[in-house]
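Worked example 3 (structure in, sequence out).
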């Protein structure tokens, strides 16, 4: 195994004041009305663009997942000219396909006392009161339209015998509000969204650019007015200008190297936008999914996600005896610890992801882990099969069972699955106001690249929903309101100084990566970075570990720029160059992630500080000091003060009063 870089002698003495200063607060521009009325009020007061004038505006959309495809298709349908970019060879290859379990909606179709307000309560509480309450109401209100819309454009939702759309339960709730297409929900929604996008391509309102990676943001006159992209096939670098830019490029979970994300998923577009002035909100809020597959080897390229929907019928347990080497079938019932059911009897195996992941990690670290590497817990379907029959269980999860068997060689119908927490979803992202506009005017975000709905922990099946709400039903209102005063203003000229500066910056960075001539490939640095982050900023964090992590990341970043090896040239297909650029961005972002985790002196949701926990081992918030969003500004290159600047947005809660989370 590669030895980790040694921390500096001052690592454990680093405190928040050594790495950050506090700047001016930021305004989320939430309407000054009750949170349940905010979205109706904002829509009423948005400026409009007349249909005949819409074709005079050009909007860039980067990303073709559910948020990007939805925004591009909706704006194209409205009549705007859209330039849409994806690094994939087809829009349907975006990573939204990987969200398997379902999509939530507050439709209250079952008589189980669900409602819009209960949806908001579950979402706000699930996020441990670190997201915007008004945003959660918008998510709930538009969820009804999302299901109807996606059903109308071809998503094959599961149905009850009488034809009504079926639902099931998910973690963190006690009602049934999750709509699904077996274990393929993200895939089917993505196919429907991509088809809607391609319809606009055929109509001529959307121009689709495949195999193009955004490498910089063009900012002129204080506004986002374009992007710089690299053709991944030819290596050509060019700039495209527009009146507004939408980023829908996903989350940054791959910063941990071993994550549930596709290997191509990355944070480069978001991070380059951040370096151009877009504040980054709560980077330490990273979700570790409790039902990922455990690593079998350090050389494994990624972890594999098993849908949270499996926890509807699967029971999670470990042997009562530490270091028990017996096969699971040989462990009698009275020698099994169903620890989630024991600790959280009300929610049981459907506790929120942060709670379930911490509980699993605690059992594993205490010596009760199972499997060849003792790094997993069991997810057992024996009771469900006995109760419902094998055919019924297979009908619900067939493709997930097949995926597990292909990955591990074990049949989950006859032996329990082995699962473990794995880096998954980023609740943090580019800071944006209520209109999804960042601190750079004209730069909007949609989906996981943003931050607003999920607070410190996302509830399962809210990710597909938030991406759809942003893409189909928020950005098509907010972006035109921004554009309306710009009527008659041409798009930025291709020869503008800001365009030339962004192009030069990209070419200079590319040239530096190609000319370093080191001895280690970018994948090696990425793996070492992941080891640092899992150790220092993983499921459980400590001030000492985070201080050491900051020192280790700085040392690794310095080593990267001295010793990275990037083979090939820049003006051709070069996947090593792509990887190197993304890893370079991760090495910058990783320091901010650790700084944010060190600075936030509390536990909340997925940000669990060992020095802030209740006697029962649960997260202990500090609402008096930390009921706010941390929106970060990075120091400029070469700045004399290399500290990050934190801008705070206070959070208030009216409909869902602050309370201690309790899932027992």
């Amino acid at each position: 195994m590669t030895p980790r870089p040694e921390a500096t002698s001052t690592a454990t003495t680093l405190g928040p004041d050594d790495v950050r200063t506090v700047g001016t607060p930021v305004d989320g521009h939430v309407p000054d009305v009750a949170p349940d009325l905010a979205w109706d009020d904002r829509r009423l007061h948005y400026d409009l663009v007349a249909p005949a004038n819409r074709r005079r505006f050009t909007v860039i959309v980067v990303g073709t997942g559910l948020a990007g495809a939805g925004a591009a298709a909706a704006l194209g349908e409205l009549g705007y000219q859209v330039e849409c970019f994806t690094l994939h060879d087809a829009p349907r290859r975006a990573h939204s396909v990987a969200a398997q379990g379902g999509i939530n909606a507050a439709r209250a179709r079952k008589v189980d006392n669900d409602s819009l307000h209960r949806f908001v309560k579950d979402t706000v509480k699930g996020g441990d009161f670190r997201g915007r309450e008004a945003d959660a109401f918008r998510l709930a209100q538009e969820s009804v339209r999302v299901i109807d819309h996606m059903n109308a454009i071809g998503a094959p939702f599961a149905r009850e015998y009488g034809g009504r759309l079926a639902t099931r339960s998910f973690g963190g709730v006690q009602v049934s509000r999750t709509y699904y297409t077996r274990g393929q929900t993200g895939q089917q929604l993505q196919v429907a969204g991509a088809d809607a996008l391609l319809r606009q391509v055929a109509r001529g309102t959307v121009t689709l650019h495949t195999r193009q990676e955004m490498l910089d943001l063009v900012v002129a006159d204080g506004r986002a007015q374009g992007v710089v992209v690299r053709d991944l096939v030819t290596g050509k670098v060019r700039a495209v200008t527009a009146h507004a830019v939408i980023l829908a490029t996903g989350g940054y979970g791959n910063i941990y190297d071993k994550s549930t994300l596709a290997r191509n998923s990355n944070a480069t577009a978001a991070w380059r936008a951040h370096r151009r002035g877009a504040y980054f909100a709560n980077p330490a809020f990273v979700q570790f999914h409790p039902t990922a597959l455990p690593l079998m080897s350090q050389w494994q390229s990624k972890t594999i996600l098993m849908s949270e929907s499996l926890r509807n019928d699967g029971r999670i347990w470990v042997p009562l005896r530490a270091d028990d080497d017996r096969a699971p079938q040989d462990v009698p019932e009275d020698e099994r610890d169903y620890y989630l059911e024991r600790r959280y009897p009300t929610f049981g195996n459907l506790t929120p992801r942060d709670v379930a992941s911490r509980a699993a990690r605690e059992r594993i670290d205490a010596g009760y882990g199972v499997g060849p590497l003792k790094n997993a817990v069991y997810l057992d379907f024996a009771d469900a099969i006995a109760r419902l029959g094998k055919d019924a269980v297979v009908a619900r999860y067939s493709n997930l069972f097949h995926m597990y068997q292909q990955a591990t060689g074990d049949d989950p119908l006859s032996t329990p699955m082995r699962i473990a927490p794995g880096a998954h979803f980023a609740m943090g992202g580019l800071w944006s106001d209520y209109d999804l506009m960042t601190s750079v005017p004209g730069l909007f975000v949609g989906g996981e690249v943003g931050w607003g709905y999920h607070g410190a922990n996302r509830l399962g099946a809210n990710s597909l929903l938030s991406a759809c709400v942003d893409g189909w039903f928020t950005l098509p209102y907010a972006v035109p309101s921004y554009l309306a005063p710009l009527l008659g203003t041409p798009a930025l000229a291709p020869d503008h100084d800001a365009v030339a500066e962004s192009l030069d910056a990209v070419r200079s960075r590319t040239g530096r990566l190609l000319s370093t001539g080191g001895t280690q490939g970018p994948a090696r640095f990425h793996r070492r970075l992941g080891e640092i982050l899992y150790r220092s900023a993983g499921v459980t964090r400590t001030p000492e570990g985070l201080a050491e992590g900051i020192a280790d990341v700085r040392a690794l970043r310095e080593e990267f720029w001295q010793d990275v090896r990037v083979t090939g040239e820049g003006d051709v297909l070069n996947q090593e160059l792509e990887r190197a650029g993304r890893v370079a961005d991760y090495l910058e972002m990783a320091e901010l992630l650790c700084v944010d985790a060190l600075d936030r002196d509390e536990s909340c949701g997925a940000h669990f500080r060992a020095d802030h926990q209740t006697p029962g081992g649960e997260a202990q918030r500090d609402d008096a000091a930390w009921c706010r969003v941390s929106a970060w500004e990075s120091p400029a290159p070469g700045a004399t003060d290399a500290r990050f600047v934190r801008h705070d947005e206070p959070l208030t809660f009216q409909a869902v009063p602050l309370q201690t989370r309790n899932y027992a």
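Notes: The CA atoms of residues 22 and 51 lie 44 Å apart. The mean pLDDT is 95.
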